[in-house]
């Protein structure tokens, strides 16, 4: 038996003024509402629904909406309403049936008494709204989508909200002083760096377009930026978001296309920035550690472009110039989202460059650390455990709660478990280190003409065979993903519900020295091994080992609900058995 009700009211001043309210709950009770027409939807919360509706009818931005639905519940209080409002905005945006016209004025992911008990009620409300045609997809499909995971309306936990507030405060202060600055947002995998970047772009564009504080529903920590001269300070703002990885860049481009005030053209490569004829006011760089220094690029054309950009921006082509220098030259304010321990190739920014820019940001009070683990349900201690284990200095396995972390002795059994979890939760995938040649690479001469099912297998373990990911972009959602194995280049920056991680023979255990070692003979990422003769750099096994261990740390922290591990090297498997619960 449900205790909630949904009042459907025509969205016009006369209907709202004359609407009966015998219980008084439409004028004095916590409520959540959605106002829509066939195309757009606006979601809010209030303690006086009819009064708030009347205010909205006077807003030119909402004049085209025609029906309001007010959600009432005996148990609602303002914290529950904030929570449901935030969820509905994210669900509407991610579903895509309507365009969400809310401003991104701060959606808080905050705890309150009884929050857990409200979650089934909220999902029940979703199902009722879906039955009435307001949603087209199932809730599972919505919450597994990139649109939900990368939503510009994502609820922020307190340290994310604090970082966004402090960045905005610093930005407006720097605007007033007319000084150029570089900020750094630092955090481990799963702390929500990408979400903060997307949220910042949306928030800046919404502040620029704001009329005043009346548009801010929640009175959040950033609501004040929507009034008091802040919108005028952003007039004509030129803002962009730089995404070094091709796959993630494509996904974020689709996310931007769906959100008012954003569009795909704002999602950039470093080369786009370097070639831009007009500088940017603000550039936000996701995975900034993946920017390149001067190293061999993927094509001769890009090598030539690197040289030309250096000459155009700095007057000469210095081998010391990096893509980070392009970002800083081409923007008045740059915001770098980074984690040095997620660098996975020698062409990535060198550690000393990252250290220098982090030091500058700390010295100027433009450094914003993130601590809260948003992805892995086992928490931040799990991430530290994984990194310590790969470094050969494991701490005791932390308490994992319901998180499934298992070492699997047979790779076929792990595949079966991944398929089962995929049926239950979706987004369960096999991933691996780059320890096998990519024979089925569709870019190889003549390979595109061969149907996928007839291409050679890349990975053979025991009696199992797989191909590497056949899709360069959005692989985890591609039709063939469950039959394939994803590499670091298709999963970095993404969330999975379950990850089945194959640790290949590129890592082995040296029993004599008690160390985990890199084996170059079983590593096949050409760009991951490539020396830098132009700069006179040759990479030793110890150099490459750092990147390979970073790769596995990234893969082992993709799973929201669980991570299964299969290790090819038997001595390494036995070594891990002391730290990871085992399924034989």
UniProtKB/TrEMBL annotation:
Coiled-coil annotated residue ranges, if any: none
Pfam family, one: SLFN-g3_helicase
InterPro entries cross-referenced by the UniProt entry: P-loop_NTPase, SLFN_3-like_DNA/RNA_helicase
Domain Schlafen group 3-like DNA/RNA helicase: 182-569
Entry protein name: DUF2075 domain-containing protein
Organism: Paramicrobacterium chengjingii
């Amino acid at each position: 038996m449900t205790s909630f009700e949904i009042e459907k009211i025509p969205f016009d001043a006369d209907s709202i003024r004359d609407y009966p309210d015998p219980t008084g709950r439409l004028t004095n009770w916590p409520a959540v509402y959605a106002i829509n027409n066939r195309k757009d939807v606006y979601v809010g919360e209030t303690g006086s629904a009819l009064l708030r509706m009347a205010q909205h009818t006077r807003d030119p931005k909402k004049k085209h909406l025609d029906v309001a639905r007010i959600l009432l519940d005996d148990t609602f209080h303002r914290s529950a309403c904030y929570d449901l409002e935030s969820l509905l905005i994210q669900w509407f945006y991610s579903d895509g049936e309507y365009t969400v016209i809310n401003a991104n004025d701060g959606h808080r992911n905050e705890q309150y008494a009884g929050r857990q008990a409200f979650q089934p009620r909220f999902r029940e409300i979703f199902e009722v709204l879906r039955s009435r045609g307001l949603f087209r997809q199932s809730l599972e499909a919505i919450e597994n989508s990139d649109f939900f995971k990368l939503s510009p309306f994502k609820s922020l936990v307190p340290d994310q909200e604090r970082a966004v507030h402090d960045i905005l405060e610093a930005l407006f202060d720097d605007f007033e002083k007319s000084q150029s600055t570089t900020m750094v947002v630092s955090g481990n995998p799963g702390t929500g760096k990408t979400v903060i970047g997307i949220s910042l772009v949306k928030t800046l564009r919404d502040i620029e377009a704001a009329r005043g504080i009346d548009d801010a529903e929640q009175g959040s920590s950033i609501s004040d930026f929507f009034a008091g001269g802040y919108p005028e300070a952003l007039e004509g703002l030129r803002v962009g978001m730089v995404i070094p990885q091709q796959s993630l860049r494509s996904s974020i481009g689709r996310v931007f296309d769906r959100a008012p005030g954003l569009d795909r053209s704002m999602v950039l490569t470093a080369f786009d920035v370097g070639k831009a004829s007009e500088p940017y006011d603000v550039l936000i760089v996701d995975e900034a550690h993946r920017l390149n220094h001067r190293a061999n690029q993927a094509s001769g054309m890009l090598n030539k472009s690197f040289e030309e950009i250096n000459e155009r921006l700095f007057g000469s082509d210095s081998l010391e110039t990096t893509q980070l220098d392009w970002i800083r030259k081409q923007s008045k304010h740059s915001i770098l989202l980074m984690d040095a321990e997620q660098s996975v190739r020698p062409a990535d920014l060198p550690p000393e460059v990252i250290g220098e820019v982090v030091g500058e940001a700390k010295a100027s009070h433009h450094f914003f650390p993130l601590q809260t683990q948003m992805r892995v349900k086992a928490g931040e201690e799990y991430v530290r455990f994984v990194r310590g284990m790969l470094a050969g200095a494991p701490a005791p396995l932390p308490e994992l709660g319901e998180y499934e972390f298992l070492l699997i002795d047979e790779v076929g059994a792990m595949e079966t478990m991944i398929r089962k979890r995929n049926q239950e939760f979706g987004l369960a995938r096999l991933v691996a280190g780059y320890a096998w040649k990519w024979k089925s690479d569709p870019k190889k001469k003549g390979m595109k003409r061969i149907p996928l099912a007839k291409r050679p297998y890349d990975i053979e373990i025991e009696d199992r065979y797989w191909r590497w990911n056949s899709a360069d972009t959005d692989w985890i959602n591609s039709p063939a993903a469950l039959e394939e194995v994803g590499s670091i280049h298709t999963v970095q920056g993404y969330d999975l519900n379950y990850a089945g991680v194959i640790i290949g023979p590129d890592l082995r255990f040296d029993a004599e020295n008690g160390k985990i070692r890199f084996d170059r003979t079983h590593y096949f990422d050409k760009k991951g091994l490539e020396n830098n003769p132009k700069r006179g750099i040759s990479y030793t096994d110890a150099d490459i080992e750092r990147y390979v261990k970073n790769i596995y740390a990234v893969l082992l922290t993709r799973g929201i609900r669980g991570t299964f591990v299969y290790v090819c090297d038997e001595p390494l498997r036995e070594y891990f058995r002391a730290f990871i619960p085992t399924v034989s």
